[in-house]
């Protein structure tokens, strides 16, 4: 609707030799629906007072009878704004145009590769992996919804030091291949990680094992295969429970075969050089305001690092998919790493793709510190899911009687909506009691609203007709909330931030519930009832579709 009104508004201006102006959604909906904030800039360019040019524009808009059906009120507001209240006609015409596939969202046709998840094998998934999985899955779905070709890759960490540490433990403990279990890995890795921090000799041995494995040691690579198989089975189980999926299960090892080819290319371009025994790529730029160290391509002991395999992965993705954009969803502490990798990749000219790092903050507990389980441990994803389910069940006695399927769906909704309703770049506090409530900005509130109004539609039927009448303020507020979808979706899409959709859902559900408190659908006149059923059905369609973009399903009941 904003675009329609802006086009009409500017057509009037152009007819009178005035430059185009931008309209935006009003930040004071109590005063108007849309506003123009560019009067000052226009007045300066014309050497006029803002009040004079503002009043002239308002007069012009009100003088065109063929456009009067689009505007209810257009007025100048001091010191330099134009406020527009749109007509019932254009609100309802816009709603009718929304009732189609994609809700009139403009489609796109690009190819994206999105890299998220990023778990290291041999290590249990923890809360940090939760954010990557949830945010990445939602961004993937948002990109796909607009019609793009989207390839998702989990990009497993399977050739780093943690593998060398676990292989050391296997050798030390005399573990047979068939006895390498998930339970053993979950015990061996934290033990070895702690040991390497205090024993330099053991750390050097683990580093040597890692290097030997990378150079093709058969025994170590066979052990890595077994560790990968055991780990991936559990990783897939947890991702499946979160409704998170990937097109590719590639890894560091997948990229390894491209390193010699990449290294040859870097040498031919003359951008790889030796520094303190290591091979590095200089990535600093003249515009940098702080020191950006070179990217280490190969350590002095001959081992390769994450930066190397990430560059090789970009090289592979460019050759395989020719993407327009490659996105990485990771912890914000990896910002410097990706700045180095991206700059090195562009300097080497191994890709034409846009490279984006989409960082996220930390999940904290109610104490403001990184989230821990009730036992005080750094939480695994399984622990967090179980604790959240228990918290929801404890809310009401009836919750104990719900099916496991519905409980799992609601648990997912609690965790995902809590996460995605926050700006991904910021830390947030995960409070099980707060986020499992059916009141407030929570997943259960959105689900409850959908089920409530879907039940009304089943009882009262649906309508395919919408008149041009709006009956009261809560009715109008609901219709305007629906029409904000396009703006919210485009913000989520362009900024890669699902919180715009989560915020939209909450506002729409709030408007829908406020509407229903005032308006009695069941006992109303047939014409009024048909209009309201049309609006309710459109609302529920949108709620379900937008929930799916957050990877949230709907339970059978609550």
Description:
This protein is of the alpha/beta class. Among the domains are: 2-86, Gyrase A, domain 2 (2-Layer Sandwich); 161-241, no CATH class. The protein contains 21 helices and 13 strands. A four-stranded antiparallel beta sheet has the order 1-2-4-3. Strands 6-5-10-11 form a four-stranded parallel beta sheet. Strand 10 (325-331), helix 13 (335-347) and strand 11 form a beta-alpha-beta unit. The longest helix has 24 residues, at 218-241. The model has no long low-confidence stretch (mean pLDDT 93).
Beta content: 5-15%
Highest CATH level, the class of the domain at 2-86: Alpha Beta
Main structural class:
alpha/beta
Cross-sheet strand order for the largest sheet: 1-2-4-3
Cα-to-Cα separation, first versus last residue = 35 Å
Rounded to an integer in angstroms, the radius of gyration calculated over CA atoms is 28 Å
Tally of alpha and pi helices: 21
Share of helix among residues?
Answer: 40-55%
Fold blueprint:
Elements: H1 2-15, E1 23-25, E2 34-36, H2 39-46, H3 50-62, E3 71-77, E4 81-86, H4 88-98, E5 111-115, H5 127-145, E6 149-153, H6 161-173, H7 182-198, H8 200-214, H9 218-241, H10 252-256, H11 259-269, E7 272-275, E8 278-281, E9 295-298, H12 306-321, E10 325-331, H13 335-347, E11 354-360, E12 363-364, H14 381-393, H15 404-420, E13 428-429, H16 432-435, H17 443-460, H18 473-483, H19 485-495, H20 499-518, H21 526-549
Parallel strand pairs: 5-6, 5-10, 10-11, 12-13
Antiparallel strand pairs: 1-2, 2-4, 3-4, 7-8, 8-9
Helix pairs in contact: 2-3, 4-18, 6-7, 6-8, 7-8, 8-9, 12-13, 14-15, 17-20, 17-21, 18-20, 18-21, 19-20, 20-21
């Amino acid at each position: 609707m904003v675009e329609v009104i802006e086009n009409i508004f500017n057509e009037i201006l152009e007819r009178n030799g005035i430059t185009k102006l931008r309209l935006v959604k009003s930040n004071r909906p109590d005063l108007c629906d849309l506003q123009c904030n560019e009067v000052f800039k226009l007045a300066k360019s014309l050497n006029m007072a803002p009040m004079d040019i503002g009043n002239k524009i308002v007069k012009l808009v009100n003088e065109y009878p063929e456009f009067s059906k689009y505007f209810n009120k257009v007025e100048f507001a001091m010191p330099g704004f134009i406020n527009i209240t749109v007509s019932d006609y254009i609100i309802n015409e816009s709603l009718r145009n929304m009732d189609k596939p994609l809700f009139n969202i403009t489609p796109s046709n690009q190819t994206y590769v999105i890299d998220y998840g990023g778990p290291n094998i041999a290590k249990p998934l923890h809360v940090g992996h939760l954010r990557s999985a949830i945010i990445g899955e939602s961004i993937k779905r948002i990109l796909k919804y607009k019609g793009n070709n989207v390839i998702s890759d989990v990009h497993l960490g399977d050739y780093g030091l943690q593998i060398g540490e676990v292989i050391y433990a296997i050798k030390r403990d005399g573990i047979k291949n068939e006895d390498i279990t998930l339970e053993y890995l979950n015990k061996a890795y934290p033990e070895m990680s702690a040991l390497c921090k205090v024993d330099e000799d053991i750390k050097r041995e683990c580093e040597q094992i890692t290097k030997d494995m990378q150079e093709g040691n058969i025994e170590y690579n066979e052990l890595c295969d077994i560790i990968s198989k055991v780990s991936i089975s559990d990783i897939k189980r947890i991702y499946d429970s979160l409704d998170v999926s990937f097109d590719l299960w590639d890894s560091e090892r997948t990229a390894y075969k491209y390193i010699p080819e990449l290294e040859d290319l870097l040498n031919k371009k003359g951008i790889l050089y030796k520094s303190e025994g290591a091979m590095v790529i200089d990535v600093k730029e003249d515009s940098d305001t702080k020191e950006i160290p070179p990217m280490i391509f190969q350590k002095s002991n001959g081992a390769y690092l994450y930066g190397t395999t990430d560059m090789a992965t970009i090289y592979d993705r460019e050759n395989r998919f020719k993407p327009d954009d490659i996105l990485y969803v990771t912890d914000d502490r990896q910002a410097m790493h990706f700045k180095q990798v991206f700059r090195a990749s562009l300097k080497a000219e191994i890709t034409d793709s846009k490279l984006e790092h989409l960082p996220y903050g930390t999940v904290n507990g109610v104490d403001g510190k990184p989230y821990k389980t009730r036992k005080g441990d750094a939480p695994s994803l399984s622990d967090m899911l179980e604790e959240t389910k228990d918290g929801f069940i404890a809310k009401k006695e009836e919750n104990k009687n719900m099916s496991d399927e519905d409980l799992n769906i609601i648990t997912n909704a609690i965790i995902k909506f809590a996460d995605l309703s926050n700006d991904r770049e910021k830390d947030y506090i995960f409070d099980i009691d707060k986020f499992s409530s059916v009141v407030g900005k929570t997943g259960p509130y959105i689900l409850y609203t959908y089920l409530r109004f879907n039940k009304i539609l089943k009882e009262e039927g649906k309508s395919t007709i919408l008149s041009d009448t709006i009956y009261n303020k809560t009715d109008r507020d609901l219709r305007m909330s629906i029409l904000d979808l396009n703006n919210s979706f485009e913000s989520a899409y362009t900024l890669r931030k699902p919180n715009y959709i989560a915020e939209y859902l909450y506002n729409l559900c709030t408007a829908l519930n406020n509407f229903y408190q005032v308006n009695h659908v069941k006992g109303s006149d047939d014409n009024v009832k048909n209009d309201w059923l049309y609006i309710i059905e459109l609302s529920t369609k949108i709620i379900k579709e937008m929930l799916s973009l957050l990877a949230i399903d709907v339970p059978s009941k609550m």
